[in-house]
From TrEMBL:
This is SWIM-type domain-containing protein. InterPro entries: Znf_SWIM. Residues 140-175 form the SWIM-type domain. Keywords: Metal-binding, Zinc, Zinc-finger. It comes from the Bacteria.
Length: 310
């Protein structure tokens, strides 16, 4: 068996020391498939926050992702400083001193920053979409933030993985920042939109004040339901609808009589039994409809034609 990839083992007293560093580095550069992102129970997820979590999920393994999420929930991120396209954070770990994590995003060109600023200034509805945390139009979203634009620059911890649990915790913390303030993505990307944001916020405040001062006619209408006039709804008693009784129809004279006779024939021994059964059905119908004398009282007295006796 080949020992080419076997870790080198040395002995120190009763302790075995094995160097697994080569294998760890080889695994670190292997592309990993995207894994499901654990849900954050602290609040609704914004579009920008989802992009960050998608980037970190595609760059690390499930174990580091779950431990980093627990670090975020446990308050291990001691501080986080945002500047244009960069975030620097300190995360408490297993050592006395916190570890420093740096995450960056590819910078926008001046032309693209001006384009995004002009778009949000000209379209208040677009800015409201971003403020709600929803995704902007595809072309604008592709410029603002994509998972492939996010770079995990490193962490001062001894973990040799490209994205350690401390970097995951910072990514969750940054995503939580965007969840609570979705418009912060514009400032982080260097887009000047302060004036447009102020205008939209003032407009929203004016709408709320206007709606609070106006009487709520809808609620009063619900509290006092409309009372209908019965005479108007049902009509006057002088104009009652009347109709004559419908004519009585014989059920035996409707439908396919030949089919009825064939059915009776399957239950009768002779043609006389068949006629007797038919006569009893006619008597039942006369009793129900109170229409006596409708049928021949002795149908078997007539000569039977077209039927042979068995």
């Amino acid at each position: 068996m080949s020992r080419k990839n076997t870790p080198r083992t040395t002995w120190e007293g009763n302790v075995i020391l094995a160097d697994f560093g080569a294998r760890r580095r080889a695994e670190a550069v292997t592309p990993r498939p995207s894994i499901p992102i654990p849900a954050d129970p602290l609040g609704p997820e914004s579009w920008a926050g989802a992009q960050l979590l998608e980037a970190v999920a595609g760059a690390t393994d499930r174990g580091r992702l779950e431990r980093g999420r627990d670090y975020h929930w446990g308050g291990h991120v001691q501080s986080m400083e945002l500047s244009t396209n960069t975030v620097v954070a300190l995360v408490a770990g297993t050592q006395p001193q916190p570890f420093e994590v740096v995450i960056k995003v590819a910078a926008l060109s001046a032309k693209r920053r001006d384009f995004i600023a002009a778009e949000v200034a000209a379209a208040p509805a677009l800015l409201r979409t971003i403020i709600r945390g929803d995704a902007p139009p595809t072309d604008l979203a592709a410029m603002l933030l994509r998972p492939d634009q996010i770079r995990f620059e490193g962490c001062t911890c001894p973990d040799g993985a490209p994205v350690c649990k401390h970097a995951v915790a910072v990514a969750y913390q940054l995503a939580d920042t965007f969840n609570h303030d979705p418009a912060a993505i514009l400032q982080w990307r260097g887009v000047e939109a302060a004036e447009a944001l102020r205008s939209v916020q003032l407009s929203h405040a004016g709408e709320q004040e206007s709606s609070s001062t106006q009487p709520n006619s809808g609620s009063s209408a619900q509290q006092a339901p409309e009372v209908l006039d019965q005479a108007e709804f049902w009509g006057s008693e002088e104009r009652r609808v009347s109709w004559s009784a419908p004519p009585v129809e014989s059920g035996l004279e409707l439908g396919d009589r030949d089919a009825l006779m064939r059915a009776l024939r399957s239950l009768s021994w002779t043609s006389v039994d068949q006629l007797q059964t038919m006569h009893e059905l006619e008597l039942c119908l006369e009793m129900i409809t109170d229409d006596s004398g409708r049928f021949d009282p002795t149908p078997w007295a007539r000569p039977v034609t077209g039927t042979r006796m068995k």
